[in-house]
Write a structure and sequence with these properties.
This protein is an alpha/beta fold and 348 residues long. The protein folds into 2 domains: 232 residues, Periplasmic binding protein-like II (D-Maltodextrin-Binding Protein, domain 2, 3-Layer(aba) Sandwich); 90 residues, Periplasmic binding protein-like II (D-Maltodextrin-Binding Protein, domain 2, 3-Layer(aba) Sandwich). It is built from 12 helices and 12 strands. A 7-stranded mixed sheet has the order 1-3-2-4-11-5-12, sandwiched between helices. The protein has a 5-stranded mixed sheet with strand order 8-7-9-6-10, sandwiched between helices. Helix 2 packs across helix 9, helix 2 packs across helix 10 and helix 10 packs across helix 11. Keywords: Signal, Transport.
């Protein structure tokens, strides 16, 4: 997301996409006839024409390609561009500095970001629709003697530091009475983690899709899924305080987020097109991209009190494990850009 979901294997911190989705006078739906109902914001809010928004794409989640296919921003009075990140922590840093306006991340990056007093807020939830399906897992090689989480004692576990997969590792260990001191956490980027896992330099790997799906396809076994009761099956949207603090820009950014919600609602109704978009952005085989899509059905809603509670519990677990040096009060980074009762699964 992890982004828990759809992180691209790579080493670059961020790649600013060159394409810009500019405003036009009328909506132009994609070749599949997507999103034929415009919001009308171009007519209602001509003052938004002064704005340009940068959206953080967490490792190739398909959002840029899907925006083109659906025509979601074709009638927008503002401009939109995309910036791609390997995973969540640098995306949150970019939101804090105002280099991006909005982006989706997993459960942990907002916590580690807030521990450094970054200037951002969590503004919406990408809510897992099926509590049995996980977008990230803890894996072991097919011939490993490790059969359960308890067998991880004394083992080397690769995790992308400060990511939702890092959080999954901590919570999974805690669920069987282990702490980070009982194992060796090896902090590696997704690409380095794949190499270490495939060459036997680590005993286990906590990672998201599509990397998880690729590894499982090559024989790796899942010993823990990122689902309740171990972990929450949500991701979150973060926005920069620089945009949230300006009432006019904030209203326009809310329009951006509702369009993003419509994009992903359409995508989940058209999973093959969704997988094509992810495959095009990441270079992963389309079958693995489709496994990624199938692994995490979701809808986009407000950041609700139950989400604040779940994030607070995760934050406290990170603090208790010594992974962050200050306790984070989630209410200080909580906000909502979406209207009360918003549910992307009911949008068109």
């Amino acid at each position: 997301m992890s982004h828990r979901k759809f992180r691209l294997v790579g080493t670059a911190v961020a790649l600013i996409a060159t394409s810009v989705l500019a405003a036009c006078s009328s909506p132009a739906a994609g070749p599949q006839g997507a999103l034929s109902k415009p919001t009308g914001s171009a007519v209602a809010h001509p003052e938004w024409s002064q704005f340009s928004f940068t959206l953080g794409d967490n490792g190739g989640d398909g959002s840029e390609e899907l925006a083109k296919v659906t025509g979601a921003f074709d009638d927008a009075p503002y401009k939109v561009k995309f910036a791609r990140f390997d995973y969540g922590p640098p995306l949150v840093q970019a939101a804090a500095s105002g280099d991006i306006d909005l982006g989706s991340v997993g459960t942990v990056p907002p916590i580690t970001g807030a521990a450094k007093e970054y200037g951002f807020k969590i503004v919406a939830t990408q809510r897992g629709a099926d509590p049995t399906k996980a977008a990230e897992n803890i894996l072991v090689p097919k011939d490993s003697s490790i059969q359960s989480l308890g067998d991880l004692r004394g083992k080397r576990i690769a995790v992308p530091q400060g990511s939702s997969a890092h959080g999954l590792a901590l919570l999974a260990l805690k669920s069987v009475g282990l702490t980070p001191k009982d194992v060796q956490l090896v902090y590696l980027s997704p690409a380095a983690g794949a190499s270490a896992f495939n060459t036997g330099k680590v005993d286990a790997w906590s990672i998201w899709d599509p990397q998880s799906s690729v590894a499982v396809g090559q024989g790796a076994r899942i010993i823990a899924k990122g689902v309740p009761p171990i972990d929450q099956s949500n991701n979150y949207y973060v926005a920069t305080d620089k945009s949230l603090g300006d009432p006019v820009r904030r209203a326009a950014l809310a329009d951006v987020l509702t369009r993003v919600a419509r994009i992903f609602n359409w995508a989940q109704q058209n999973p093959d097109e969704y997988a094509k978009a992810i495959s095009k952005e990441t270079g992963v085989p389309q079958k693995d991209a489709r496994a990624t899509v199938d692994s995490f059905p979701f809808k986009i809603t407000q950041f609700l009190p139950e989400d604040v509670k779940a994030e607070q519990a995760l934050s406290d677990a990170f603090f208790e494990a010594g992974e962050i040096t200050k306790r984070v009060d989630l209410t200080t980074i909580s906000d909502n850009l979406l209207p009360d009762g918003f549910d992307s699964s009911k949008s068109s």
